[in-house]
Amino acid sequence: MTTTGADAEAGARGAPAGPWWWARRRAMVLDVLLAVASMIECTIEGITFADKARIPAAIGLVLGLAAGASLLLRRRWPIAVVLVSVAITPAEMGFLLGIVGLYTLAASDVPRRITVALAGMSMAGTLLITFINFHQDLGQEDSAPLWANLLVSIVLAIGLTAPPLLLGLYAGARRRLVESLRERADGLERELSLLAERAEERAEWARNEERTRIAREMHDVVAHRVSLMVVHSAALQAIALKDPERAAKNAALVGDMGRQALTELREMLGVLRTGGERTAASAALAEIATTGARPTQEAEEPDTLTLGELEKLIGESRAAGMTVELSVEGEERSYPPQVEQTAYRVVQEALTNVHKHAAGAKALVRLAHRDAEVAVLVENGPPAEGASGARLPSGGNGLIGMRERVTALGGGFVSGPTDTGGFRVSAVLPDGANT
């Protein structure tokens, strides 16, 4: 079905469908009015033609009504309407029918070669009939030159054919341009919707990443400090009456560790506060949501830990009664903050696990500075005979968190039991990790 510009535009805008082939009711009303006007014109011209041709007037009346009524079909079958106007041209009928039919044909999606051919037929018919009528009306005695009659006929034929044809071509081109722009706008809207969905997915992923990071940090801080506090509390309970001086010392250590745990938690939770200034966590979330990349460790950590604090960390475990040996290999040097932070957390979590699961076991911490990497190893022996564990709960996330930290920096992580009944944790980190 061929449609004109008005129909296509109405359909594209989602207007309610009109009756039959009309897209809108006002389009139907317009075509009915044009058809009525064309029927009146064609009826009058048909009766006049019947009188000249000496045929019954009823034939001219029926012919005029049928020809004029064909204008109702112009939006559905514009080719048929133009063919009807060409067919009745010898009867000098269908002036309005021809003009509206040519306009509708040019504005429709009919192939241009068909439009040009039908327009040529209409112009040729108008030219021929006009030339014959001029020649007959002037009479033989007042006959104008042949070229004058031909020139007037050509001008009249072009005047009746070219304006509706050109106007229809313009209307069709404008309608196609509007449709193209509308399709492009719809495509851009779909793309924007898709981008918004992807941005929402990235934001959700970023929130999950941030929650995971915060949970991992809180686990590292709480598990280590609380493990030491529980060990010291157990020792305090055992020696409270036998050695008051040592009990007081252990109590002071418990208090210090509790304050340190609270301080670290306060610093960590501080990045979650919303305020006027941009926090480190919000910066990390924005970086993930906009680029889809993992944020740098500097943006994640409120307080960066270094390998230089391993001595202090190990000292806390020694104070809790654990035998810990520290071995450093290679020339000491500085590393990117995220590398030192991760290495520190690996050692911290490994020592926490020794407190939890291997009470009284001896632990070895080895730090190796190599050409392009730094390696940490924490290995403990089996629990001491008769030693009672701290009975601390384990969520099973410590090793998972260590592995996530190390692999995020492009390093390698290995953990597992040893042949002697102990446990080993090993991590290798590149010194120029690209995060």
From TrEMBL:
InterPro entries: DUF7134, HATPase_C_sf, Sensor_HK_TwoCompSys, Sig_transdc_His_kin_sub3_dim/P
Membrane-spanning intervals of the chain: 27-48, 55-73, 79-102, 114-134, 146-172
Residue ranges constituting the DUF7134 domain according to the UniProt record: 20-157
Molecular function terms, GO-annotated: kinase activity
Reactions mediated catalytically: ATP + protein L-histidine = ADP + protein N-phospho-L-histidine
EC numbers on record: 2.7.13.3
Keywords: ATP-binding, Coiled coil, Kinase, Membrane, Nucleotide-binding, Phosphoprotein, Transferase, Transmembrane, Transmembrane helix, Two-component regulatory system
Phosphoprotein is among the record's keywords: yes
Residues of the Signal transduction histidine kinase subgroup 3 dimerisation and phosphoacceptor domain: 210-275
Pfam families: DUF7134 (PF23539), HisKA_3 (PF07730)
Coiled-coil zones: 178-209
Protein name: histidine kinase
Organism (species): Streptomyces pathocidini
